[in-house]
Target: DUF402 domain-containing protein
Amino acid sequence: MDFPETGSVIEIQSYKHDGTLHRIWEETFILQGTSKEIIGGNDRIRVHEANGRVWRTREPAICYFHRDKWFNTIGMVRSDGIHFYCNVGTPFVWDEEALKYIDYDLDIKVFPDMTYHVLDEDEYELHKRKMNYPPELEQKISEGLEELQSWIYQRKGPFEPSFVEKWYERFLFFR
Model:
């Protein structure tokens, strides 16, 4: 199967362009697994950083991955509304061990009023030079960032007003 089954609990792993492990999220519950989209939920899970640091997330979150999109999103359920942390990276792959993607540093933090900030542009520029990203890759990353910003503006996909709430209710039901 090329995607995790609905109802399974998986690990999510992000890597850097050079193949080094970047971060691992433990125990994400798959709310919907199809060949195109993965929607998962988690709450206060352990996260392992490449430098050995381990920490816990602070709130429930709904994660969205798409097989064709160069980004993924994490909708965090907080008392003042839904906050998003979005990663620009490769589309996901599933290999029975974990859901995996390459993180290309550029992130977008989205606030409940749907305003947002692009983050880590300096880190992206540093890694682009250090790891010698080819022009075709830079183009994919740029297109992924633009499409992500368009989805935020249009309130499309995981940014639809009721998306996170709907999936969070399902997460609570299965928990």
Q: What stands out?
A: Residues 9-174 form a domain with the FomD barrel-like fold fold (CATH 2.40.380.10). The radius of gyration is 15 Å. The CA atoms of residues 35 and 67 lie 7 Å apart. The mean pLDDT is 97.
